[in-house]
Specification:
The longest helix has 21 residues, at about 210-230. Helix 1 (about 20-35) runs parallel beside helix 2 and helix 5 (about 135-150) packs parallel to helix 8 (about 210-230). A 7-stranded mixed sheet has the order 3-2-1-4-6-5-7, sandwiched between helices. The chain has a single domain (about 5-230), classed as Alpha-Beta Complex (Spore Coat Polysaccharide Biosynthesis Protein SpsA, Chain A), CATH 3.90.550. It is built from 8 helices and 7 strands; from the N terminus they run βαβαβαβαβαβααβα. The chain has helices at about 20-35, 55-65, 80-90, 110, 135-150, 165-170, 180-190, 210-230; strands at about 10-15, 40-45, 70, 95-100, 120-125, 160-165, 195-200. The chain has about 240 residues and is α/β, with parallel strands linked by helices. Strand 1, helix 1 (about 20-35) and strand 2 form a beta-alpha-beta unit.
Length: about 240
């Protein structure tokens, strides 16, 4: 049992080379914890092998904020691995996810949380995208391809603002690119998904980690991996026994 067991809601924040955003991010998250609709709440940063001094900065930020915690990878492992580490470490009933780039607002967790008890995943939809033309078009193509392959019915699976029931999140299979398939994976495990419109802002600091190639080629390949896994997914329910 770790410190997150004392909270109802843990916000997981993957971080990779976002030093320019960290101070403002810490301030925004600290302010949100004061008026979260689910209390007590805390923040768990997962440093994904940052090479810009971000890990040391996170350590100092967490020292200054009572409800902030962090884990640090020894090397860069990718967004899916960082989220999986967060889910595995989280011992609160609910786990949130937000990116460190501040293109979504922590305050919008309060739009998602009222539905968290009834849905295993509540995901945001970026109604007005404040991204460049290439990013918007490539995301639209990738989302369309994913919906065709997964039939998950979700319009914006890439929105980096989500709330999970932690028990469900921990059961999701891990693979590179997993974060692109959260709604489909939750549905595959028998869970329910709800979509809620949220705000979206332009990036004001730091550099985007995705470009045209990995925004299109990654989802294209990963969809085939998901289809392969779905056909072989094992799902069972215990209906009796004497182990108790």
């Amino acid at each position: 049992m770790n410190a997150t067991a004392s909270y109802q809601f843990t916000i997981i924040v993957p971080v990779f080379n976002e030093r320019e955003n960290l101070e403002r991010l810490g301030e925004k998250l600290s302010a949100y914890l004061e008026h979260s609709s689910m209390k007590p709440a805390c923040v768990l940063f997962i440093d994904d092998g940052s090479t810009d001094g971000g890990k040391e900065m996170l350590s100092e930020i967490c020292r200054r904020h009572r409800d902030f915690y962090y884990l640090a990878f020894e090397k860069n492992c990718g967004l899916s691995a960082a989220l999986k580490a967060g889910f595995d470490a989280c011992e609160s009933p609910y786990a949130g996810y937000i990116d460190a780039d501040l293109q979504t607002d922590p305050d919008d967790f309060n739009l998602l949380l009222p539905h968290a008890a009834d849905y295993q995943l509540v995901t945001g939809i970026r109604v007005t995208r404040n991204d460049g033309f290439v990013k918007r078009v490539s995301s639209k193509i990738a989302n369309g391809w994913r919906r065709m392959m997964t039939h998950d019915g979700v319009s914006d699976t890439g929105c980096p603002l989500k709330v999970f029931q932690t028990e469900c999140a921990r059961k999701l299979p891990i693979f590179t690119g997993m974060h692109r398939f959260f709604p489909a994976l939750v549905q595959m495990a028998g869970g329910r998904v709800m979509q809620i419109p949220v705000r979206h802002y332009p990036r004001t600091a730091g550099k985007a980690k995705y470009h045209l190639f990995n925004r299109l080629w990654g989802p294209f390949n990963d969809c085939f991996a998901f289809r392969w896994m779905k056909k072989r997914y094992i799902d069972y329910r215990i209906d009796g026994g004497n182990l108790d």
